[in-house]
Amino acid sequence: MKGTVGELGEFGLIRELTSRLTSTPAVKIGPGDDAAVVTAPDRRVVATTDILVEGRHFRRDWSTAYDVGRKAAAQNLADIAAMGAVPTAVLLGLVVPTDLPATWPIELMDGIRDECQVAGAAVVGGDVVRGDTITVAVTALGDLRNRSAVTRSGARPGDVVAVTGWLGWSAAGLAVLSRGFRSPRAFVEAHRRPEPPYHAGPAAAELGATAMTDVSDGLVADLGHIAAASGADIDLRSAAVDVPAQMTDIGTAVGVDPLHWVLTGGEDHAIVATFPPDVKLPARWRVIGSVTAPAGRTPQVTVDGAPWEKAGGWDHFGDDA
Ligand SMILES: Nc1ncnc2c1ncn2[C@@H]1O[C@H](COP(=O)(O)OP(=O)(O)OP(=O)(O)O)[C@@H](O)[C@H]1O
Ligand SMILES: Cc1ncc(C[n+]2csc(CCOP(=O)(O)O)c2C)c(N)n1
Ligand SMILES: [Mg+2]
Ligand SMILES: [Mg+2]
Ligand SMILES: [Mg+2]
């Protein structure tokens, strides 16, 4: 594909984007009409939206358009999974400048389509608008398959806290990229293309999870949302949290305690959940802490009994963002 988005025009671009999509049996009417029609076997539809903005969430010299597409889909599909639901459909709101090479949105679409396929969903529509800053706004829908939604508010004192998926890998990759390096590859790739354990969301619901979330802003920060919504404290055992040797090596090289990445790094979209104490968890879950009765007025997350640094996570309007 030669030329720019402007040369292709709005409807030329839409044609290019939608011609690359695949469907699923849940999609009764896909892109091309005023709206899509998706079956909702459960009748309750799980819906979520998350935005990626160039310069803030991704850089074109760090990630390909395909990577950004994978990530934009992944962060939304992870939110569906974190409710205990199975993703069904995705919509893409896209803002692009007119002089952007047309290959960029096209490869983005390929990435979104492929990540949706990993999770069993399909892209069913979207919108394209001209704007100065590339903005990728994804909306995802999901199906609870007759299970109850697992919210952030159900954690109870005595529950265990368990996690599955990667923690700190994206943050370590970001640290590498922001210092001008491109390796170790595994961490840089983890930053470019997170791999949320989608299947673990519905599986956790089936295992009786009392509260659940995906880790987008950082483990301590996201567990803070569970603590606040549940009115309980959470204590993490740092020894139970895996810090890979290679991450320690990067930490030494750049002067960062790797535990900081594991506890406060977002964007890996691991799934963290609380379960009743007698739960039998499959091996992919690691028990990393416990829920306790609230000690003070504000529910707290502690690490080995003590507060971890500041809030411990990403805040778009915070000092570090
Ligand atoms: N602009 C908004 N309008 C309405 N609701 C919002 C808005 N922004 C956030 N929310 C809601 O607030 C809650 C928390 O949002 P938040 O974005 O922190 O969750 P998340 O998507 O799981 O995290 P992350 O954005 O880090 O992936 C969600 O239920 C979200 O739908
Ligand atoms: C270029 C660049 N600079 C910084 C970061 C780090 N970053 C951006 S958003 C976010 C948390 C989740 O955001 P949200 O709450 O919007 O899902 C993090 C850790 C990045 N990915 N790219
Ligand atoms: Mg969000
Ligand atoms: Mg989330
Ligand atoms: Mg999210």
UniProtKB/TrEMBL annotation:
It is an enzyme of class 2 (transferase). One of its GO terms (molecular function) is magnesium ion binding. SUPFAM superfamilies: PurM C-terminal domain-like, PurM N-terminal domain-like. It catalyses: thiamine phosphate + ATP = thiamine diphosphate + ADP. CDD domains: ThiL (cd02194). Its EC number is 2.7.4.16. Residues 32-142 form the PurM-like N-terminal domain. Keywords: ATP-binding, Kinase, Magnesium, Metal-binding, Nucleotide-binding, Thiamine biosynthesis, Transferase. ATP binds at residues 126-127, 152, 216. Mg(2+) 4 binds at residues 34, 48, 79. Mg(2+) 1 binds at residues 49-50, 127. Substrate binds at residues 57, 267, 314. Mg(2+) 3 binds at residues 34, 79, 214. Reaction mechanism of ThiL seems to utilize a direct, inline transfer of the gamma-phosphate of ATP to TMP rather than a phosphorylated enzyme intermediate. Belongs to the thiamine-monophosphate kinase family. This is Thiamine-monophosphate kinase. The gene is thiL.
